[in-house]
Design goal:
Carbamate kinase, 37% helix, alpha/beta, 8-stranded mixed beta sheet, 309 residues
């Protein structure tokens, strides 16, 4: 199970054009080709934080011309077009490397609790950083804003805990056929089970790392790999004494989370997801830089979390 951050495609230091995002999509799939060559059964879950925030801006800019779309629908929308970019990029990279594997994107729904308290507390940063003036305007319009782990003003969305991916049996079937599957894009649009209506959508964003961990458990995956823009989990992050932690037990990971030094919108959900996957029976979880996936799988870099040392 590979979890890719939405920031891997839309970076903060450049315009989030489709051209730039396609270029980064091609870069991001390069490490996956080697894993596919080795015969791994692979599911890719990607984030959509910058992209779904941009869709909300488009909503607001065009609301006098066309009816705006709810957040849950925008999650499904971004899962489609980001999945398309990753799928095409991976197909081309596999063909160039002469690796005969099919790639498919499936739009999946993530089951959540309708009464999850997190639905009342916007903590998940989405979109790009905004100025203090823009943040004030967004707040006056009745939308949540707050500071992210880097101290930047961002739009905030509610983020309930995932309970499972509705379509996981279909993913299992595609894996049995040898396909590489892109699923739960942007965490998947969140849904709950209504006793009368069946599945109903919610306007929220589910954290893609937490969803990837739940889906990995549903599929009995051996490894959960969370690929991000940092080399590893660091002790003393942001201080001169910062050092990478190469191996952690679940207990050590939980102790770090309990210490309160982790950003709720950043590294905390990654460590929480990784530790949860291992606690539920996964062999190991890895947090590493995107370009170093194969090396992290060998244990040469990144942070590996296991049940014991």
């Amino acid at each position: 199970m590979l979890a890719l951050g939405g920031n891997a495609l839309a970076r903060a230091d450049e315009p989030a054009t489709v051209t730039n995002q396609f270029r980064h999509a091609r870069e991001s799939v390069a490490p996956i080709v080697e894993l596919a060559r080795q015969g791994w059964r692979i599911v890719i879950v990607h984030g959509n934080g910058p992209q779904v925030g941009d869709e909300l801006v488009r909503n607001e800019a065009a609301r006098k011309v066309v009816a705006p779309l709810p957040l849950g629908v925008l999650v499904a929308e971004t899962a489609g077009w980001i999945g398309y970019m990753l799928q095409q990029s991976l197909q081309n990279a596999l063909a160039a490397a002469r690796v005969d594997r099919e790639v498919v994107t499936i739009i999946t729904q993530t089951l959540v609790d309708r009464y999850d308290p997190a639905l009342n507390l916007p903590t998940k940063p989405i979109g790009h950083a905004v100025t203090a003036q823009e943040a004030a305007r967004i707040r006056e319009a009745g939308r949540a804003v707050g500071r992210d782990g880097a101290g930047e003003w961002r739009r905030m969305a509610t983020s309930p805990q995932p309970l499972g991916v509705v379509e996981f049996p279909l993913i299992e079937g595609l894996l049995d056929l040898g396909a590489l599957v892109i699923a739960a894009g942007g965490g998947g649009p969140p849904v709950y089970q209504d006793p009368l209506l069946g599945l109903e959508g919610l306007d929220a964003v589910v954290d893609k790392d937490r969803v990837s961990a739940i889906l990995a458990s549903q599929l009995s995956a051996e490894v959960l790999m969370i690929l991000t823009n940092v080399d590893a989990v660091f002790e003393g992050w942001g201080t001169p004494q910062a050092r990478p932690i190469r191996r952690m037990t679940v207990e050590q990971a939980e102790s770090m989370m309990a210490g309160g030094s982790l950003d709720a919108g950043g590294m905390k959900p990654k460590i929480e997801a990784a530790a949860g996957f291992v606690r539920r029976g996964g062999a190991r979880a890895i947090i590493a830089r995107l370009s170093e996936g194969p090396a992290a799988l060998r244990g040469d870099t990144g942070t590996t979390i296991t049940r014991s040392t």
